[in-house]
Amino acid sequence: MSRIAYDGQDAAAFAGTRHLAAAALDVWRAAVGRHLPPAQGLRLLDLGSGTGAWAKAFADTYDVIAVEPSGAMRARSEHPHVMIGDAAHIPLADASVDGVWLSTVVHHVPDLVRAAQEIRRVLRPGGPVLIRSAFAGRHDAITLFRYFPEAIRVLDSYPSAASVQEAFGAAGFTVAAFEQIPQCTAVSLRDFASRLRRAAHTPLQLITDAEYATGLARLHAAAARIDGPVIDALDLLVLR
Which 3 state secondary structure label does DSSP give 178? Predict the structure, then answer.
């Protein structure tokens, strides 16, 4: 399911640096709540749950089922129960969940058409698929690419929003919403730079060592002179 084979180092870096602060999580919880209004007993599938930050964040609102293919990620999960599976093989019964959440996952899925069909199988009729992602061609609102422009070529190898819509359209889904959600990624650029770990970001892993070193120098130089919080905006694509 992944462009890279997540090992213990990757999972540790992800757990240590990619989890958002409470205020940023609240922004995304509110966005999801607009499309899947909380109600007792609603089941949300966190597909590609990684180290479990999103499953944990949604657990107070929904009955969360976490599915993750990487053993290293499952071992680091903050969610107590994680099932082995991937987007092509979801270990759930037909029509058994009310919504599906995929956060920064679609670029790891080798066959989006197959994934869309499998999601359609487990999703109850009318339920939303909520895809949080950095899509190809949409790097302008993401701080990482400002200082590592070499990584844009990696992002541009990701699925575009249009290609995801097409793949899911083949399984009968239509677009319900497409919006950018601003989040506070770090309290300052200095904090962002100090916590950055290459192993936690697929686009950084897939550039050269020299490109990474150059970008890191840019980032630390900017962090020494720029104040204020780091605000990024990722896309939320909602399909039904």
Answer: strand
Q: Taking every pair of C-alpha atoms in the chain, what is the biggest distance, in angstroms?
A: 54
Helix (H/G/I), strand (E/B), else coil: 184: strand
> Could you tell me the two tokens for 226?
């720029």
- Rg of the chain (C-alpha set): 17
Q: Classify 187 as helix, strand or coil.
A: coil
If you search the block for the tokens 């590609």, which residue do you land on? 48
Reported as a single tens digit per residue, the pLDDT across 59-88 is 999 999 999 999 999 999 999 999 999 999
Question: In CATH terms, is domain 8-142+152-185+230-239 a member of 3.20.20.20?
Answer: no
- Residues of the chain under the 70 pLDDT cut: 1-8, 10-18
> For residues 226 and 215, what is the distance between their CA atoms, to the nearest angstrom?
16
